[in-house]
Amino acid sequence: MTGPQTRPAATEPGGYAAARLRLLHQGALTGPPRRAALARLTDQWLGALLGETRGVALVAVGGYGRGELSPRSDLDVLLLHDGTADISKIAAVADRVWYPVWDMGLALDHSVRTPAEARRTAAGDLKVHLGLLDARHLAGDEQLTAALRTTAYEDWRAQAPTRLPELRELGEDRTRHQGELRFLLEPDLKEARGGLRDATALRAVAASWLADAPRAGLERARAHLLDVRDALHLTTGRATDRLALQEQDQVAEALGLTDADALLHGVYEAARTVSYAADITWREVGRVLRARSVRPRLRRILGGRGGRGGFAEVERLSLADGVVEQDGEAGLARTARPERDPVLALRAAAAAAQAGLPLSPHAVRRLAASAGPMPQPWPAEAREQLVTLLGAGPPTVPVWEALEAEGIISTLLPEWEHVRCRPQRNAVHRWTVDRHLVETAVRAAALTRRVGRPDLLLVAALLHDIGKGLPGDHSVTGEALARDVARRTGFDAADTDVLATLVRHHLLLIDTATRRDLADPATIRTVTDAVPDTATLELLHALTEADALATGPAAWSAWRASLVAELVRRAAAALAGDGAPPPHAPAPPPPEALRLAAEAVRTGAPAVTLESRPEGTGPAGDGDPAPVGVELRIAVPEQPGVLPAAAGVLALHRLTVRAADLHAVDGVLLLNWRVAAEYGSPPGAARLRNDLVRALDGSLDVPARLAEREAAYSRRRRGVVHAPPSVTVAAAASHGATVLEVRAQDEPGLLHRIGRALDGAGVWVRSARVSTLGASAVDAFYVTGPDGAALTPRAASAIARATEEALGG
């Protein structure tokens, strides 16, 4: 089985060891060229050890098969034989190869099999099968190796429907045990999520021909992780994949980086790329496998009919203007024109997050490539969509990461680059700075019912650590950056001041509460000197809790929460004496509204006018966004059910209420609405008036129609959980009426349900102030009893509870 041979210098006794040493420590090669050169050198050596053979092949598998040998990598080698030779002769050949490797002190993962044995082993062991997909011939009978590779790939593609779910479960199990590489201070470069194992899994998925990973940046990310592992091996002299803290400075130096933070930043960037590619790829695998399982049933049901090729068209459900749900993803409508619609990226992201859907990778790439620049300052809709995205809770995270992966976030918020993938060398922190900021917004979304300005809370959550990564105190630096962002995104001067205050003092409450004596008036002055009013204090309290919850389990506890709450209580008393300021009353109706009321009195029927407004025009007061879309005025002779009827008609026509004022004037209810069409054009005033008349006389069953829509809406938002609604009585807010404050998730028909609940309670709505801030509704209703007097405290509390229950609280 062997014969004479000529050995290259590297294959002489001691030659391989010397050549290997020179290559790793004295050569000019680094990165992929060095790994490939080490693989070639090892190929020559092992090939010479095997010698000339018949019926035997030496095959590299796994990482060695890919030609990616790190300095301390295992040599994964298979001795393949055709089964015709005596087993003792095969054993002698194996010993001739294995023992020199062991004598060198190299780790060897070896096996001896026939092609049939290799196939059977692969069928029972996924990891073996994965290794064979990278099989590469080293020496001996090339036909044996070629046949093995062909069989391995044929089996892999035939078994993909069962193998790929198994491969995905292996990855999920690794994540449970090893965590996510991009958030770990001492990551395992191979086993953690987003590491080298996941990159290899993506190659296996591509080999199945069922799906393929996004290619942009993936190979560069994988190569970077391999470069770091090479430097780690050379620095430690060990076969380790864990980047321990005490070795990071040395590894950074070996790679020519400034420090360990720069090292981790690059590792996190690479891991983020791999993780994002994995998310997209596994989602596509799931879609393909589901389609394969459904199509045979469709063939039977449709009998070869029902669309092109006998298959039904995939349903496309509209989510927002230019945004649709298709096949479990949020994508762009066929009519969408990103180059003409700079708000589309944020609108698509907000719609996807609110629906609990991932953004289609194709849609994100198209948005990144063709979206026009955002006007400065941002249009009001853009700001609202950003707040809506941030307020969606946990579904915000994957949508935000999709935008970030394609560079959209850094385009919209250039300040984000300072915190992107920035490590936090603090054991308390679970996340990198950027992910911590998004996680804080996620936590803040659950607290929006506690504050009067949920939009400011969510934006402050996103920006509170934006100063990290720049010189100086990050709170001071962040305050200046927050002002820039607030002005650019279109917040007015008063809101900009509030956001700057929240960012500047986001650590004030937790530091003061845990380090100072709360009974000392000087402690309370520390807070009241920094925070101008109770509304801002309310926001700072919620931000403090969200920040701590997003930091990690050790950052927030019942004890800390109680200390902060007590500090806030004392500071609020010092600022206002009796708590938060009352809600703003609606502004007096303008002359045109009074003229409309006169028409309603004259005709005894509803009067409706509708006026389109360009984006961002019109007055804005008390921190409200400028009017957007359509201004709608309705005057109706006073009667029960006007508010739910009018709100229901708007919901049926898919008009989203951005703001509204309601007044009772001389026997007429005046409703002034600022609305925007979910998609398409709004209906005309005549059509709205006709439907309102029908809703009031009972010929249009608004509740039933809305119930159908609400059921469909709920199905499309499966798994999305929002903070429960809150209905409270605002004490001493009005002398002539009782003020009920409603804070809830803005949904189709919400105002209709509130109106029905108040009508059912037997109270009259004398005026109301309705505002939608992102995806949160913050409404104040001034109500009286049938006698026109304010409610008793007991009655008011009962109606607040009943209304909250009606809204699902």
UniProtKB/TrEMBL annotation:
Ranges of residues in domain HD: 433-556
Function noted in UniProt: Modifies, by uridylylation and deuridylylation, the PII regulatory proteins (GlnB and homologs), in response to the nitrogen status of the cell that GlnD senses through the glutamine level. Under low glutamine levels, catalyzes the conversion of the PII proteins and UTP to PII-UMP and PPi, while under higher glutamine levels, GlnD hydrolyzes PII-UMP to PII and UMP (deuridylylation). Thus, controls uridylylation state and activity of the PII proteins, and plays an important role in the regulation of nitrogen metabolism.
EC number: 2.7.7.59, 3.1.4.-
SUPFAM superfamilies: ACT-like, HD-domain/PDEase-like, Nucleotidyltransferase, Nucleotidyltransferase substrate binding subunit/domain
NCBIfam families named in the record: PRK03381.1, UTase_glnD
Catalytic activity, reaction form: [protein-PII]-L-tyrosine + UTP = [protein-PII]-uridylyl-L-tyrosine + diphosphate; [protein-PII]-uridylyl-L-tyrosine + H2O = [protein-PII]-L-tyrosine + UMP + H(+)
Protein name: Bifunctional uridylyltransferase/uridylyl-removing enzyme
Domain observations: Has four distinct domains: an N-terminal nucleotidyltransferase (NT) domain responsible for UTase activity, a central HD domain that encodes UR activity, and two C-terminal ACT domains that seem to have a role in glutamine sensing.
UniProt activity-regulation remark: Uridylyltransferase (UTase) activity is inhibited by glutamine, while glutamine activates uridylyl-removing (UR) activity.
One function term, GO molecular function aspect: [protein-PII] uridylyltransferase activity
Entry keywords, A to Z: Hydrolase, Magnesium, Multifunctional enzyme, Nucleotidyltransferase, Repeat, Transferase
Keyword Glycosyltransferase attached: no
Region (Uridylyltransferase), start-end ranges: 1-318
InterPro entries according to UniProt: ACT-like_dom_sf (IPR045865), ACT_dom (IPR002912), HD/PDEase_dom (IPR003607), HD_domain (IPR006674), NT_sf (IPR043519), PII_UdlTrfase/GS_AdlTrfase (IPR013546), UTase/UR (IPR010043)
Highest taxon listed in the record's lineage: Bacteria
Similarity remark: Belongs to the GlnD family.
Entry cofactors: Mg(2+)
Organism listed in the record: Streptomyces roseoverticillatus
Limits of the ACT domain: 739-809
CDD domains: ACT_ACR-UUR-like_2, HDc, NT_GlnE_GlnD_like
One Pfam family in the UniProt entry: GlnD_UR_UTase
